[in-house]
Specification:
The protein has 307 residues and is an all-alpha fold. It contains 15 helices and two strands. The two termini are 19 Å apart. The mean pLDDT is 92. Its cofactor is Mg(2+).
């Protein structure tokens, strides 16, 4: 890894995961906030079940490390990262539902609707989605309200109809859920369903750091390349990985009839595409010099991950 050893990178990743876990624990406590009437126990337990005690917290890590390029206080970046992680965890709850991917296992445990029921899972996802926008607007993130506005708008667009949610419906259409034979644009689906939140993790640091247009574009380009590499690696793991390492069933894409980068490019073609994306990611953030070494290491981690 360029400039950052694997062990140093792992320590940084684990540290951010631990810090995010602790912060989410506080944000998801039973303490009632101003303007809240109650925090129902069943709902809070379900939200905690699906967002605590698991995951690499890659998305918050990207926020923290992209913000660090500009010297942004870590506490502010962790708040933004926690909002992003709430969006990610909500999306996993809903993706796992019988009407979507119908998954029984997530992070080595029963999915939330299997642990509880469909209605509780839907509402827990709704709760995490809404909490994300409570967090992202908090004064502690930045003294400039316009920075908080930009962060909020970008999060809505990356998570919503033109991002993750839109990508999810295109993915379902690609499975033939709605009839017809619409052409499948795997790259577009990836950019929206998976890539948009990963990209947000990168541009959020630029927004927090009030970056120049050139600096913002560098992190945007990096985030787009990393997001695509992540999805291709995920597609490869679905073919080559095992359920124990993944914490979820392997071969799920094939079972659902999904068109993926692997089905389109083949295994070797997909691996070459990942190598090309790594070079693109490295080049994008090279303008930051030594400040980019952790981000460059993160791209390699994404490409080489085993789960």
């Amino acid at each position: 890894m360029t400039g950052t050893s694997p062990s140093d990178f792992a320590k940084r990743l684990d540290k951010t995961a631990d810090d995010t876990e602790a912060l989410l624990g506080r944000l998801l406590s039973d303490d009632i906030l101003h303007d809240e009437i109650a925090r129902p126990k069943r709902l809070m337990d379900a939200m905690r079940y699906s967002s605590l005690n698991g995951g690499k917290r890659l998305r918050p890590f990207l926020v923290v490390e992209s913000a660090a390029v500009f010297g942004v206080p870590r506490e502010a970046a962790l708040l933004v990262g926690s909002a992003l992680e709430c969006i990610h965890c909500y999306s996993l709850i809903h993706d796992d539902l019988p009407a979507m991917d119908n998954s029984d296992l997530r992070r080595g445990r029963p999915t939330l609707h299997k642990k509880t029921d469909d209605a509780t899972a839907i509402l827990a996802g709704d709760g995490l989605l809404t909490l994300a926008f409570d967090i992202i607007t908090r004064d502690e993130i930045h003294r400039d309200a316009n920075v908080r506005l930009l962060l909020t708008r970008a999060l809505a667009r990356c998570a919503g109809i033109g991002g993750m949610v839109g990508g999810q419906i295109l993915d379902l259409a690609g499975e033939g859920r709605f009839g017809g034979n619409e052409p499948i644009d795997v790259a577009r689906i990836q950019q929206m369903k998976t890539g948009a939140l990963l990209r947000y993790g990168c541009i959020a640091g630029a927004i927090l750091g009030q970056a120049s247009q050139k600096e913002y574009q560098a992190l945007d380009d990096y985030g787009r390349a990393l997001g695509e590499a992540f999805q291709i690696a995920d597609d490869l793991l679905d073919v080559e990985g095992d359920a124990a390492a993944l914490g979820k069933p392997a071969g799920a894409d094939a079972a659902l009839g999904k068109t993926t980068f692997v089905t389109q490019l083949g295994i070797e073609g997909a691996k070459q595409r990942v190598r090309d994306l790594l070079a693109r990611a490295d080049n994008a953030v090279s303008i930051f010099g030594d400040r980019a070494t952790v981000l460059q290491a993160a791209a390699r981690f994404v490409a080489e991950r085993k789960n």
